[in-house]
Design goal:
682 residues; mainly beta; 2 helices; 46 strands
Length: 682
């Protein structure tokens, strides 16, 4: 495309012909839509549109006087405009003025007629949509024509004329003033996808005809450093700091195993326009050197950023270490490891494996504890007590499985006098239950657990006294035998005055407040380790958690039952499996004990061997009177009802079970002690 611009100088009688071309940075031809011509010296601007390439200017040489009564009309400013432009008009003598706006096809778009007094006027023209139009002004003396190019949308089509104090410049109507030697400025304009882009601007004093080449630049782009390099991928990108005067239609990175890659090689496409972008380089080969450059493409061509190089790594086995074993119990432990390196291939699986034989693998017992590198923790479960195990951490990637160093540990024996099962009493604590209900012999001041869980003393509790040589298992609240401040603190106490049983002599205190010696677990238990403070009584909140809240692997928490002809409730440990025995009416407080009848051999082999607890209906005592006959179970908690004499208890019988019932502290009820698991795994 070549645009021709012709200036006719009247006074000098010299034609100056300008031809315009445009090229890109690489020297190739570039099309354009307009040329903006500005006479910097005289202060006018004209926009030439292809194919309207000829412009004739007829004017003074700067020395003649203006004609009498000659109105003066300025060029529209701005031109091109974005929907609105303004002309200034000087009326030397009042006159009738007709202003019309024509489309390029000759249709009348707007018309304004009025009589204007002598003075300066502002003609404001709004054009509704982008187009080329011609403003024609007629007075009784002369006609004026101004070409207007709108490249935007105005506020409707209208003409508004107002008086103004702004004085229009003194220049002629047909294209402005040009005198050889004037300082002129030129730039090309290209419209691409509705966007306008400009070439560089050339400014010089114009003395003669010539061909002027205007430059459209390619973008300016820089290449980002290559990061996150793997065996088959990497991340780079770039920054387009300049669009070169033309919209950037594509950008990204290109790469190759040879230097100076171009978009004819492998490349990404990451959006358009200026600004920063990120590129994912995929499909690479391990152990290979690659070269990468950012690129940006506009209407003038493709520009490249500086070249970067990187090498993809090769894949190896991961590197993993084994952590020391901790939280060792009779049936569980905690271990773990650290994946130090993924071997340049993502770690898809990690954990620990263990066995009673050395050098365990993932074909032995093992955990799966996530993926990737970093530290992980592993829970080892279903272990045998008092058994030596070997454990190794492992990590698997595409190459294979790597192992950490081997460590060993030995599981604990469960506490003396305890049932071999763990029961959660809170979100962070597990306990062992004692092997039977607590019993006491006054004549020898001896405490023991019943040898079998279904055993209870019954009517012999009526013989309670300080010298009785039989066994009792129904106690008033807080009767540990330690003088902790209550009037009734001895196991044989029978007063019916509730205030006599206040722990530490205060209605506000629980068994575990102050010294904790009001709890029966303060005493050495002859068949339960025979050491002070090994055992304790569950709190109200813990009884409630055992029956109503805790999660077990089987979903079974408890069931009413008859075991060895004794009514009661079975509590199942956290890791109970229904494969051991399938109970009916599970977790049902309204069930009857007769729904499950368990023989002695079944209890020993299927239940107690797998950690189950049985609480018999051992009745209750008031003074020396025994209530019921194996029909009700009442077990103390260690929690007092706040500000009252009553104490929270576990109460159950046919058709009812509540771990938060209450009763007066002077009643004699059953006690089932527990011992904390010092190495919790939940």
């Amino acid at each position: 495309m070549v645009m021709l611009l012709c200036f006719l100088l009247v006074s000098a009688q010299q034609n100056v012909i300008l031809k315009f071309t445009a090229r890109t940075s690489d020297g190739s031809y570039h099309p354009f839509d307009y040329v903006s011509v500005t006479n910097v010296t005289r202060g006018w601007n004209e926009l030439l549109s292809y194919p309207d390439t000829t412009m004739t200017l007829t004017s003074y040489d700067g020395t003649q006087e203006g004609l009498e009564y000659e109105e003066v009309l300025s060029d529209p400013l701005p031109n091109p405009c974005y929907g609105q432009t303004i002309l200034l008009f000087n009326i030397e003598h009042g006159d009738a003025v007709n202003v019309r706006l024509f489309s390029s096809s000759g249709a009348v778009l707007l018309e304004y007629c009025d009589y204007l007094e002598t003075g300066f006027y502002q003609i404001k023209i709004n054009i509704e949509k982008p187009q080329m139009a011609f403003c024609v002004i007629n007075t009784s003396r002369k006609q004026y024509v101004k070409k207007i190019l709108s490249i935007g949308s105005g506020n409707g089509n209208n003409i508004i004329i107002n008086r103004t104090n702004e004085v229009p410049t003194d220049r002629n109507v047909e294209g402005g003033v040009f005198v050889v030697g004037d300082l002129m400025s030129y730039k090309a304009i290209s419209i691409e996808n509705g966007n306008s882009f400009e070439s560089n601007t050339i400014t010089n004093q114009q003395y003669h005809s010539e061909t002027i080449s205007l430059l459209f630049s390619t973008p300016i782009v820089t290449t980002s450093n290559v990061v996150d390099i793997t065996t088959n991928s990497a991340v780079s990108g770039g920054l387009v700091t300049s669009d070169g005067g033309s919209f950037v239609t594509a950008r990204g990175v290109c790469w190759s195993t040879s230097p100076h890659p171009t978009i004819s090689n492998s490349h990404t496409t990451d959006g358009n326009g200026t600004g920063s972008f990120t590129s994912n380089i995929l499909g690479l080969i391990e152990g290979t050197v690659y070269y990468v450059r950012a690129y940006a493409t506009n209407g003038k061509g493709t520009a490249y950023g500086e070249q970067k190089s990187f090498t993809t790594p090769t894949q190896t086995l991961p590197t993993v270490t084994t952590q020391p074993v901790s939280s060792i119990t009779t049936h569980s432990a905690v271990c773990g490891g650290t994946v130090l390196s993924d071997g340049n291939s993502p770690v898809t699986s990690r954990g620990v494996c263990w066995s009673t034989l050395q050098n365990p693998t993932i074909y032995s017992n093992h955990t799966t504890d996530g993926s990737g590198t970093g530290v992980f923790s592993s829970n080892l479960s279903d272990l045998l007590q008092n058994t030596t195990y070997y454990v190794r951490a492992y990590a698997t990637n595409e190459v294979g499985t790597a192992y950490g160093s081997q460590v060993s540990f030995t599981t604990e024996l469960f506490p003396t006098g305890a049932i071999n099962g763990l029961f959660s009493v809170s979100a962070t604590q597990q306990v062992y239950f004692s092997q039977g209900n607590l019993q006491y012999q006054a004549s020898t001041n001896t405490w023991r657990f019943a040898e079998n869980q279904w055993e209870y003393v019954g009517e012999d509790n009526s013989n309670i006294s300080s010298s009785y040589d039989g066994w009792i298992d129904l106690f008033g609240w807080g009767t540990s035998g330690y003088n902790h401040g209550a009037t009734c603190y001895q196991p044989w106490s029978t007063s019916t005055v509730n205030s006599f049983y206040n722990a530490y002599g205060n209605i506000l205190f629980n068994l575990f407040d102050q010294t904790g010696m009001a709890d029966w677990g303060y005493n050495p238990i002859s068949n339960g380790g025979n050491t002070e403070n090994q055992w304790r009584t569950l709190t109200k909140e813990e009884w409630e958690y055992v029956f109503n809240t805790r999660n077990t692997s089987s979903g079974v928490r408890y069931a009413k039952a008859i075991v060895a002809w004794t009514k009661g409730v079975i509590i199942l440990p956290d890791n109970w499996s229904t494969s051991y025995y399938s109970l009916s009416y599970i977790n049902n407080y309204a069930a009857n004990c007769s729904h499950n009848t368990i023989s002695v051999s079944t209890w020993i082999n299927n239940f107690e061997a797998n950690g189950a607890v049985f609480l018999p209906c051992a009745d209750a005592r008031e003074n020396t009177t025994i209530f019921c006959d194996n029909c009700i179970g009442e077990y103390w908690s260690a929690t007092k009802v706040a500000g009252e004499y009553e104490v929270y208890i576990l109460l159950f019988q046919d058709g009812h079970l509540s771990p938060v019932s209450t009763t007066d502290p002077h009643f004699g009820l059953s006690v089932r002690l527990v011992q904390n698991n010092s190495n919790n795994n939940n």
